[in-house]
Amino acid sequence: MMNAKFLLMLVLGMMLITFTACSDGDETSAGDTEDTTTNEENTDNTGDNTGDTADTSGSSDELSGEVEFMTISLLPAFEDYLNGLKESFESEHPGVTVKINDVPYDQVEQLVLTKAASGDLPDVMNLNTDFVKKAGAKGALVNMDEAAADVKDTFFEGIWEAGSVNGSVYALPWYTTTSGLIYNPELLEKAGYDAPPATFEEAWEMSPTILEKTGAYGEVIMPEMHFQFPKNGIPFLNEDNTKAAFNTPEAVELWTKYKEYYDEGLYDIDILLNQVSMAELYAQEKVAWWYTGPQLFRQVKDLSPDVYEKSLAGPPLEGTAGKQHANPMNIAVSSTSKSKDAAVAFAKFVTNADNQLAFAKEAAVLPPVKEAIEDPFFAEGEDSEDATERGKFYAAQALDTAENMIPPVESVSGIYEAIHQAFQRVLLQDVDPADALTQAEQEVNSLLAE
Fold first, then answer.
1. pLDDT (mean) for 166-181
2. How far apart are CA 198 and CA 202, in angstroms?
3. Domains by residue range for the chain, with CATH
4. What is the predicted pLDDT for the residue at 46?
5. Is-contact 370 36, C-beta < 8 A?
6. Looking at the DSSP assignment, which residues form a beta bridge with residue 435?
7. Is residue 87 over pLDDT 60?
8. 366: helix, strand or coil
9. Closest CA relative to residue 129, chosen from 88, 159, 92
10. CA gyration radius, the chain
11. Which residues contact 369 (CB under 8 A, 6 or more apart)?
């Protein structure tokens, strides 16, 4: 069972990284919430079972109907946990029957879009942020700003907004991740450093010396380079999300520096293009650190136990905005559900503090609920010599400054692609950064006008 869970979390972690519209591979998601539906008398038993969690969204005689709960690739690894949710909720609401339907990840998008078009979506759905935006933009999901206003303040504000599209939130944040830093102290020592960088600026300052002294890269441009805009205080879109806002002097300066670093040989474009694995580069000691979700650190252990053994973990790197990206999985409710009240109550139940904490302990993820993240469980790795365990501690701490940086519009994938293509023209065709950003701005504005 442990092997199955571990493999599943690797899949989920890679999913957060490689799904461009939804995730940040250098970091992955964050959230913490305090759920007002939680029974305070049972908060000390959150890791034991889900059956003791109270739900104030309605008494047993107020809710009825069948609720189909669609999850993504969580069975069989988390069968006991999901069945516990089902049985606990049904015991509190005898008039409700919950049916769990687990769907393979590669089938979710087609299923959701097809069923959204026919008005036959599952009542409650586990969706990633991109799917939420696509379905929410089509009017297929319940507005949670309205239906779940009573629990809104229990979540970190930045994480709550993950399900936002066109000014409204259409999902409750479920499990999430943020980032930590795994680094090679031997490489740093050879370059004359006794600690890893704390900021991206410091990382780039250290990189030339590291490359010269060790032959390894320091900082590199990752496939999720678009998130460097919000991390450095450069918004993707204007306030009403109708036009691009990233064509700024600050963005020109940032890309100009990145072009200089590339010309100096400080990073390779194969990394940006996702043609080489950062886990492999780190395991081969070709890069001094890796900024990503701690749930992925153990990939290094699989590839090179010796390198993993000498690795340490530190806080995630910061840009000038001092913010981290978090991209949660979400729980949404179909707007055409025949059991809408029961479905909304179940969505709140799944995402309350007790149940979020219990799942975090099983699945090595973070609960985007304030009350849950305050549990001593998340402080256990602070003094650990194991990179993954300490990385979890730093990732949990990062929830305080985490927010979802994905633009709240349906065309987010196209926005990222326009930015990526423009940046590649800067590197490979020597296009002036200002011109490249202007062209990307025009392309994004066209997308938003469609």
1. 94
2. 7
3. 2-177+327-403 (3.40.190.10), 180-216+277-316 (3.40.190.10), 221-265+411-450 (no CATH)
4. 35
5. no
6. none
7. yes
8. strand
9. 159
10. 22
11. 31, 32, 33, 34, 35, 154, 155, 351, 352, 353, 356, 357
